[in-house]
Design brief:
Elements: H1 6-58, H2 65-79, E1 82-87, E2 90-94, H3 112-120, E3 122-128, E4 135-143, E5 152-159, H4 161-212, H5 228-261, E6 265-269, E7 275-278, H6 280-286, H7 297-301, H8 304-315, E8 322-327, E9 333-342, E10 348-356, H9 358-394, H10 400-433, E11 440-443, H11 444-461, E12 465-469, E13 476-479, H12 481-498, E14 504-511, E15 515-521, H13 556-566, E16 570-573, E17 584-590
Parallel strand pairs: 12-14
Antiparallel strand pairs: 1-2, 1-5, 3-4, 4-5, 6-7, 6-10, 8-9, 9-10, 11-13, 14-15, 15-17, 16-17
Helix pairs in contact: 1-4, 9-10, 10-13, 11-12, 12-13
């Protein structure tokens, strides 16, 4: 073991620390602890002297000095301490000396504790007693004359052996501490010596771990200067590699979560066009078998369009992204988009992304149907208006009544076009309002009564009567005034329109506890079961080629359905009961909470 080696430095520092600690302990035990013990004994001795002084003052007058000496002897025996009373240097009483031997004692006026007591009231001193032959702690206090005892100094002597015993016990404990500390230092030295060899091995183990891809391992910081720069460099390198790999793993986890959570189906293919992986969305579309990996797309999907797309990319990879649309068996339409990428080895691979565009196709079809229906609804009356107008201009009828008939026809078709456009605007408004509508409690009874009152004159012209069956109360529902009134107007208007002359329209309401169901029933021709849902579609009419005198556009029930849906309710046709002769439309709205 070389003197300047790291191992020897550890041992020297350990021993130096041990000596410093022991030195502090010895200093504390021989000075501080001793002073504290002496001070504690002085305090207790002063308290005992005060008690003795009080007892003397409270005692009846002593007969003579012998009587006082005998009292001191008895009290000193019971207290277990030596009590001495000194007057003018002469020992008047001493609990450890017989009264007859007091005259042989030396003059005590020059004792340090007596001098201090006479000058300052209290005095203390530690010295060896000539009388007892051992170290004693003397504590003295000046006392005035009382109970026949002359003025003097009362002194209490306590054996210093108690302090010596405590110091001896402390020194023995220090010795055991020294032995234990030295043993611990020896063990620590051996551990540190072995650590040096272990540190060298740790360099080799860390290098092997990094080679195996285990980047989380680190070298302990070496206290010595020999290996510290190397250990810090190796740790910094491992930390940098670990940080980079953590980022890679995090990004991989994020991509995996995106891959698994996408609504679009994703299929990855290798350089030969065989399946490497796919996500749950694609499995839902094509019910991919467990043995899909390693097979071609046509083998698992049975769709030649997908295989043709893959083959075209494999044949000409530089052409860029391509796509194809396919129709699935469940009436869904999927757009398949293909992209190529290169892996870490430079191999070109393919990703197929399957977008479900069913809703988009349905929206496009709905828009086309809407435009076609709107054009149809407007073209027929517009053609009639144009024809009759041209006739009036080119060949005006000589008979004024015939001209009036032409103009009435023009007016009727113009009214029809106005209703079509108004209904289209109302439908668009209802769809837009549904996004920001704030519902509030409104009275179902009030709005129902208003609608019936508004349409009663028209119904009376054809002798049509109304029968109302509703529960008591206001029938409060969650909705909006204009919308609810529009629904009642439309349903009752249809009932009047299709009821026979002299017929009866039944308007009813029923409270089921959480909502209120309103129904309007007529005695008209009714609606077949297969058409009960189509009547709520836009522009749907039982006879699409007929424009009746009321100018119906086929949008009324579609608007009602949108309004009721905006209110959080539902509407339906329920005209197939035993007691129902015509059509019966019902809708449900929630009651206020």
């Amino acid at each position: 073991m070389r003197l300047g080696s790291f191992q020897m430095r550890i041992l020297l520092w350990t021993w130096a620390l041990l000596l410093a600690v022991l030195g502090v302990i010895f200093f504390y035990s021989t000075s501080v602890v001793e002073k504290e013990l002496v001070a504690d004994i002085e305090i207790r001795s002063k308290s005992e002297i005060e008690s003795i002084k009080w007892l003397i003052r409270d005692h009846a007058a002593f007969a003579d000095e012998r009587d006082f000496s005998e009292w001191v002897d008895a009290f000193g025996y019971s207290l277990g301490s030596r009590i001495t009373y000194i007057a003018d240097g002469r020992v008047v009483a001493d609990s450890d000396v017989q009264f007859g031997d007091l005259g042989d004692l030396d003059d005590h006026s020059a004792r340090p504790e007596v001098v201090a007591a006479l000058e300052h009231g209290w005095g203390a001193n530690v010295r060896r007693s000539d009388t007892l032959g051992k170290d004693m702690l003397y504590v003295a206090s000046k006392m005035e004359a009382a109970s026949g005892v002359p003025e003097g100094v009362i002194r209490l002597a306590v054996s210093f052996s108690t302090v010596s015993e405590r110091l001896a016990l402390l020194r023995r404990n220090i010795l055991w501490i020294f032995v234990a500390t030295f043993g611990a230092a020896l063990v620590l030295s051996l551990i540190m010596s072995n650590n040096m060899t272990r540190e060298i091995r740790s360099f080799s183990a860390l290098a092997e771990s990094i080679g195996r891809g285990e980047y989380s391992r680190r070298l302990r910081r070496v206290p010595g200067g020999e290996f510290k720069p190397l250990a810090e460099s190796v740790n910094a390198m491992a930390q940098s590699i670990e940080r980079s790999m953590r980022i890679v793993h995090d990004q991989k986890g994020q991509l995996q979560a995106i891959f698994q959570g996408m609504h679009e189906g994703v299929l990855t293919l290798d350089g030969e066009g065989r399946i490497e992986s796919f996500n749950p969305a694609l499995d839902e579309m094509f019910n991919m078998p467990e043995s899909s990996k390693g097979r071609t797309p046509i083998e698992v999907s049975r769709r030649f369009e997908i295989q043709d797309l893959v083959d075209s990319i494999l044949a000409d990879p530089g052409e860029g992204s391509r796509s194809v649309q396919i129709d699935l068996l469940d009436d869904r339409t999927v757009e398949v988009k293909a992209e190529t990428y290169q892996d870490q080895n430079g191999v070109r691979k393919i990703i197929l992304v399957f977008h479900d565009i069913t809703e988009m196709k349905r929206s496009e079809k709905g828009l086309r149907d809407f435009v076609a229906n709107a054009s149809h609804q407007l073209r027929t009356p517009l053609t009639s208006i144009k024809g009759y107008t041209e006739t009036l201009i080119d060949m005006p009828p000589a008979d004024p009544e015939a001209a009036r008939g032409f103009l009435e026809t023009v007016l009727k078709n113009a009214d029809h076009m106005d209703k079509v456009i108004s209904s289209m605007l109302a439908l668009a408004k209802s769809e837009q309002m549904g996004k920001r509508l704030e519902l509030k409690p409104v009275s179902g009874r009030e709005h129902l009564s208003r609608a019936v009152d508004d349409l009663t004159p028209w119904a009376s012209e054809r002798s049509i009567t109304f029968e109302t069956r509703t529960p008591e109360g206001e029938m409060m529902v969650m909705g909006e005034t204009d919308g609810l009134l529009h629904v009642f107007h439309n349903l009752i208007n249809n009932a009047v329109k299709y009821s026979p002359d002299g017929g009866r329209i039944t308007v009813s309401a029923e409270d089921d506890g959480e909502s209120i169901v309103f129904c309007v029933e007529d005695q008209g021709p009714g609606i077949s079961r297969e058409l009960s849902t189509k009547v709520f579609e836009r522009f749907y009419r039982v006879d699409e080629n007929t424009i009746d005198g009321s100018g119906s556009a086929g949008l009324g029930l579609a608007i009602c359905r949108r309004i009721v849906k905006n209110f959080g309710g539902e509407i339906w046709h329920d005209g197939y009961g035993e007691d129902i002769r015509g059509a019966r439309f019902c809708f449900r709205l929630d009651k206020p909470a």
